[in-house]
Design goal:
The chain is α/β, with parallel strands linked by helices. It folds into 4 domains: 111 residues, GMP Synthetase, Chain A, domain 3 (2-Layer Sandwich); 157 residues, P-loop containing nucleotide triphosphate hydrolases (Rossmann fold, 3-Layer(aba) Sandwich); 68 residues, Orthogonal Bundle (Helicase, Ruva Protein, domain 3), CATH 1.10.8.60; 106 residues, Orthogonal Bundle (Chromosomal Replication Initiator Protein Dnaa, Chain: A), CATH 1.10.1750.10. It contains 19 helices and 10 strands. Strands 5-6-7-4-8 form a 5-stranded parallel beta sheet, with helices on both faces. A 3-stranded mixed beta sheet has the order 1-2-3, sandwiched between helices. Strand 9 and strand 10 form a beta hairpin. Helix 11 packs across helix 13. The longest helix is centred in the C-terminal third of the chain and has 31 residues. The chain is globular. The chain starts with a helix and ends in a 17-residue tail after the last helix.
Length: 484
């Protein structure tokens, strides 16, 4: 059943504002999102993958609660990129988002101290027996299965890396659920890199390091998602290194996931990188056609929607980046059928996803590009969107813009709008500057906590391109984390 968005959405937004407060609502929701309904799904459209990722990680519960209070129903959130929303953002909003992100760990620590432990989300959803295995992820799946069957033996630590939306979180949660079922007496903990940072910051401020150490170092298995969040946080890295050593010395299991290879995470200590590399480092690639089709079929079954193989294949052939993009396209097709009252056929699917294919194709690659670039330089995608012009940010932003021109069909104005409403002349100058440096075989220099770092620009670009899959075939090339 389609819910009347005109009636429900304003009330939901008002309820979200009440829960989060006006500052956070204005920064992350006002003019930056658009809510819509389709069956049991609440679609959250965002201007770029950074905003969507932040809302998903921090405000999902608030959005779901608000929708439940207004409509009386429970909805599953679906996130999607809608580039046109970037036009609605105020000039200073990307700066405010970046500043909020940078200050958030301390703020959460203060709230943690005032209100006690933050509520824990529901049980972990990912299960290994529901993971769709193919050529792109078979090795990572086999390693995860081995950890469940024989923890702390062959693959320790296990480090899984790959682009956004390729199933890393599913694998990590599947490991935790597997350990719970196969080894009920084992003590394990699943946290994100940000949650670990917040725990550590709070422990220091509250002078509760003994409790922190006891909570983490007594574990039989520590599972950390998005470990690249620790980049550029030297104190937290020191704390994590000591925790890592204690768990490893006790012969216990450590599992980590990141959007980038350990060597490609900026501002990470050499001690941590060497320990990551001492175990099993495995990459998850973009899903092949068979995996994409199977994922769509299973999702359609969970939605209790009858869709022919021809329709599923049409969607799978047009959306090759990641699982979330696929699911967003499937949701659009199902919603179109509900609205029109037509059966789900290939012609209907073509009409439903035509705009997605046209709008998403150039944008999604840029989402992966800026994610890889920001992680390498120890920044966040929000830093690239700001108006700040420090040496590191300016170099990273220029490289991201140059790679966007090289590997996407986006125009200079489109790239500028995507990256924080920059003027098209900014993109032209940045691309020209990087091209001139390449022609001169120059080295790129940027600041790190240890001081100035330099590397040949051509070599640097090649390493970055390998990370977001630019050297792969067209069918395997990743395009985006967020559907459009």
């Amino acid at each position: 059943m389609i819910v009347c968005a005109e009636d429900a959405v304003p009330k939901i937004e008002s309820r979200i504002a009440d829960q989060l407060g006006p500052q956070r609502f204005n920064i992350w929701f006002k003019n930056a999102t658009r809510l819509s309904f389709a069956d049991h799904y609440l679609r959250v459209s965002v201007p770029n993958h950074f905003v969507g990722e932040w809302i998903e990680q921090h405000f999902s519960a608030a959005v779901i609660d608000a929708a439940r209070e207004v409509t009386g129903n429970d909805y599953t959130l679906s996130f999607a990129i809608e580039p046109l929303l970037a036009k609605n953002l105020g000039k200073k909003q990307p700066d405010r988002q970046s500043e909020f992100a940078a200050n958030n760990p301390d703020r959460l620590a203060r709230e943690h101290r005032r209100f006690g432990s933050l509520p824990v989300a529901g049980p972990l959803k990912g299960k290994l027996d529901e993971f769709v295995v193919g050529v792109s992820n078979r090795l990572a799946y086999a390693a995860a299965l081995s950890v469940v069957e024989n923890p702390s033996t062959q693959y320790n630590p296990l480090f899984i890396h790959g682009g956004c939306g390729l199933g890393k979180t599913h694998l990590l949660q599947g490991i935790c659920n597997g350990l719970k079922d196969r080894h009920p007496n084992l003590r394990w903990r699943y946290v994100s890199g940000e949650e670990f940072t917040n725990d550590y910051v709070f422990a220091i401020k509250a002078r509760e390091m003994d409790a922190f150490n006891s909570r983490y170092r007594s574990l039989d298995a520590l599972v950390i998602d998005d470990v690249h969040f620790l980049a550029n946080k030297r104190a937290t890295q020191d704390g994590f290194l000591h925790t890592f050593k204690a768990i490893d010395a006790a012969g216990k299991q450590i599992v980590l996931a990141s959007d980038a290879h350990p060597k490609m995470i900026g501002h990470f200590s050499e001690s941590l990188v060497s320990r990551f590399l001492s175990g099993m480092v495995v990459r998850v690639e973009s899903p092949d056609l068979e995996v994409r089709t199977t994922v769509l079929r299973r999702r359609a079954e969970r939605m209790k929607v009858d869709i022919s193989d021809a329709v599923l294949r049409h969607i799978a052939e047009n959306f090759r980046a990641n699982i979330r993009e696929l699911e967003g396209a499937l949701l659009k097709v199902v919603a179109q059928a509900h609205v029109s009252g037509e059966p789900i056929t290939v012609p209907l699917a073509e009409r439903a996803v035509r705009d997605l294919v046209r709008q998403t194709a150039p944008v999604v690659m840029l989402g992966d590009i800026e994610s890889v670039v920001s992680i390498y330089f120890g920044l966040t995608p929000a830093d690239l969107h700001t108006s700040r012009k420090s040496r590191t940010i300016a170099l990273a932003r220029g490289i991201a813009m140059y790679l966007a021109r090289r590997h996407t069909d986006m125009s200079f104005p489109e790239i500028g709008r995507f990256m924080g409403n920059k003027n098209h002349s900014t993109v032209i100058l940045a691309s020209r500057r990087i091209s001139q440096m390449l022609q001169a075989n120059a080295a790129a220099g940027w600041m790190t906590p240890e001081g100035l770092r330099e590397q040949n620009l051509a070599v640097l670009l090649t390493e970055l391109e390998e990370q977001f899959g630019a050297t792969k075939t067209a069918d395997a090339a990743p395009k985006a984390r967020w559907a459009s």
